[in-house]
């Protein structure tokens, strides 16, 4: 039995040594792929097993239109999804077309701050080209649309005018705020939200991102000279996608933004909005009360989440959920009430630009800890997000480190549960009198469990009738102080209806792709004939493209979609 995880780790280490030799790299990559039955070999076999008539592109004159997939980089699971969606659309009479970077630029959202600029690009270029060649879907490169060298020369001149982080953030090109549109990507890249104004490394990286941004705007101008029936892209807030989204919308083109769902092997899709905002308000408002069958299914799903199951990423490989053990490990006083705070990671797009009550997530956490320093009769538990150790990145900024640096001598009634702790977040919320969140999804799950939840930032479930939503710091601290309680039955009922709208109505199953560990996958079909003619949720959904409505999250079960 092959240990795929160990084999993948060895392949990655070997890859770093041989990337400079294209032929050696290609041979090693294909050998690894054959041993693991990876997506390259699987896709090749799927295409070979598909009847030729199912691979034919519709005639341009008779087609329903061209569909652009802006997919510049080799993100494995995303390309795996996109290729299957493209084939479904092609089978419906559309002409899908991918546009890829092909090493036109040296930095993008693939890079972490610890990576040397440019070293990933040769691998990315080879893999995405080979995968798309196998797929049978048409594609072109940046250089097919623009003069890359001329664009980069002009970008160099423009970006060189920015000498500080603030100047780079405010950089514009032809009226488009490229500095601001790139800010979330640079925060994600640096893995820190607090970027020093005059730090040379941070300035150089921001400048590199902005050069790519300038080129991407030139690309957008060329791309949208052509007529598209729709554009598909991932996330929408990564800087290159943000530029394509912004320019495409200005030209009146429908932009469909998708992202990995909150539940395993599902995606979310929004039209002309940012899917990562998870705004299912319209779906929730239209949703009728749950039927007995829906209530049973929703309760089962949410209870599984409460015990750490049904997540797209396995944050809890080991879980300590026994209440007595948790109390003993944290040295808690059972005679004192407990409040639990669940911060996100600092650089997550889920927390950036979401301010309502406080200036930032850290400002919220800092002021919350300071408040409880003087409240020895109440225990505060801060549960650091497990993503800080479960995601495969180096972090520049960790919430636990920020707390310890700011508060080196915390009193005994304030405890920090580290990101690598097996203590169950759901055991903590079950013991809590109040649950405090910035934007964490644990707020929804806590309300579903009948807890009083105080939300301090713009998150998708704020203002839906099952959380307490302060508007000012003064109101927030008053909520911490009071003991008015909640209507537990009403809170749980509303939270369950919202959970149904989010996790069932809005989530689109992708049954032909099975994610293994973070970002890797295998196909579950042997031929496109199975997908196109079979009973697959994604086929039923995308066969109804371009969908009703003008904007917002697209529900799986819109009228006419069983």
Structural account:
This protein is an alpha/beta fold and 562 residues long. It is built from 22 helices and 15 strands. Strands 1, 2, 3, 4, 5, 6, 12 and 15 form an eight-stranded mixed β-sheet that branches. A five-stranded parallel β-sheet has the order 9-8-7-10-11, with helices on both faces. Strands 13-14 form a two-stranded antiparallel ribbon. Helix 8 runs antiparallel to helix 10. The chain is globular. The relative contact order is 0.11.
What distinguishing features does this structure have?
about 550 residues, 8-stranded mixed beta sheet, Rossmann fold, 22 helices, 5-stranded parallel beta sheet, 15 strands, about 45% helix, alpha/beta
Outline the fold blueprint.
Blueprint: H1 4-18, H2 22-36, H3 39-48, E1 65-70, H4 76-91, E2 94-100, H5 121-135, E3 138-141, H6 148-159, H7 165-169, H8 178-190, H9 200-223, E4 230-234, H10 239-250, E5 255-260, E6 266-271, H11 281-286, H12 292-306, H13 323-330, E7 338-342, H14 361-373, E8 379-383, H15 387-390, H16 399-406, E9 414-417, H17 425-431, E10 434-437, H18 442-448, E11 452-455, H19 473-481, H20 488-505, E12 508-509, E13 513-515, E14 521-523, H21 528-533, H22 537-542, E15 552-553
Strand tally is: 15
* Amount of helix: 40-55%
Rg value: 24 Å
DSSP strand content: 5-15%
For the sheet with most strands, the description reads: 8 strands, mixed
- Specify the overall morphology: globular
Tally of distinct domains: 2
Number of helices: 22
Q: Compute the separation of the termini in Å.
A: 41 Å
- Low-pLDDT parts are none
Quick check: average pLDDT? Answer: 88
Structural class, from secondary structure content?
alpha/beta
């Amino acid at each position: 039995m092959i240990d795929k995880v160990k084999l993948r780790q060895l392949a990655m280490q070997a890859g770093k040594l041989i990337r400079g030799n294209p032929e050696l790299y290609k041979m090693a990559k294909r050998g690894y792929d054959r041993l693991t039955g990876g997506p390259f070999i699987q896709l090749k076999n799927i295409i070979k097993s598909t009847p030729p008539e199912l691979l034919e592109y519709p005639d341009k004159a008779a087609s329903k239109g061209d569909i652009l997939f802006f997919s510049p980089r080799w993100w494995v699971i995303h390309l795996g999804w996109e290729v299957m969606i493209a084939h479904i659309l092609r089978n419906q009479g559309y002409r899908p077309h991918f546009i890829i970077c092909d090493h036109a630029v040296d930095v993008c959202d693939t890079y972490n701050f610890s990576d040397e600029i440019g070293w990933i690009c040769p691998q990315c270029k080879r893999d995405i080209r080979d995968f798309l060649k196998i797929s049978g879907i048409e594609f072109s490169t940046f250089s097919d649309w623009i003069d890359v060298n001329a664009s980069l020369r002009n970008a160099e001149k423009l970006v060189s005018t920015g000498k500080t982080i603030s100047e780079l953030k405010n950089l514009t090109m032809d009226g488009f705020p490229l500095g601001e549109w790139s800010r979330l990507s640079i925060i994600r890249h640096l893995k820190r939200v607090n970027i020093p104004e005059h730090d040379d490394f941070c300035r150089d990286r921001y400048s590199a991102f902005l050069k790519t941004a300038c080129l991407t705007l030139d690309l957008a101008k060329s791309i949208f000279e052509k007529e598209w029936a729709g554009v598909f892209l991932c996330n929408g807030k990564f800087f290159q996608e943000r530029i394509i989204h912004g320019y495409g919308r200005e030209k009146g083109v429908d932009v469909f933004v998708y992202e990995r769902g909150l539940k395993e092997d599902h995606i979310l899709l929004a039209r002309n909005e940012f899917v990562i905002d998870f705004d299912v308000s319209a779906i929730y408002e239209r949703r009728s009360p749950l039927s007995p069958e829906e209530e049973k299914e929703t309760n089962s799903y949410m209870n599984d989440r409460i015990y750490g199951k049904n997540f797209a990423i396995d944050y809890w490989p080991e879980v300590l959920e026994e209440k007595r053990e948790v109390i003993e490990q944290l040295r808690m006083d059972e005679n004192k009430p407990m409040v639990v705070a669940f911060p996100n990671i600092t650089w997550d797009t889920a927390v950036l630009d979401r301010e309502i009550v406080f200036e930032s997530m850290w400002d919220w956490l800092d002021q919350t800890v300071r408040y409880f320093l003087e409240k020895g009769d109440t225990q505060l538990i801060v549960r650091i997000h497990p993503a800080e150790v479960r995601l495969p990145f180096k972090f520049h900024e960790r919430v636990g480190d920020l707390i310890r640096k700011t508060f080196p001598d915390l009193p005994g009634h304030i405890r920090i549960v580290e990101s690598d702790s097996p203590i169950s977040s759901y055991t903590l919320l079950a013991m809590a009198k109040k649950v405090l969140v910035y934007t964490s999804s644990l707020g929804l799950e806590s309300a579903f469990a009948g807890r009083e939840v105080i939300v301090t930032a713009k998150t998708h479930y704020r203002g839906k009738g099952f959380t307490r939503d302060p508007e000012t710091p003064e109101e927030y601290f008053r909520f911490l102080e009071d003991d008015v309680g909640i209507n537990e039955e009403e809170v749980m009922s509303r939270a369950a209806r919202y959970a149904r709208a989010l996790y069932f109505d809005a989530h689109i199953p992708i049954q032909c792709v099975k994610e293994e560990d973070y970002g890797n996958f295998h196909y579950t079909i042997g031929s496109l004939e199975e997908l196109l003619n079979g009973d697959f949720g994604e086929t039923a959904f995308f066969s109804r493209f371009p969908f009703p409505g003008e904007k917002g999250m697209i529900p799986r079960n819109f009228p006419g979609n069983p």
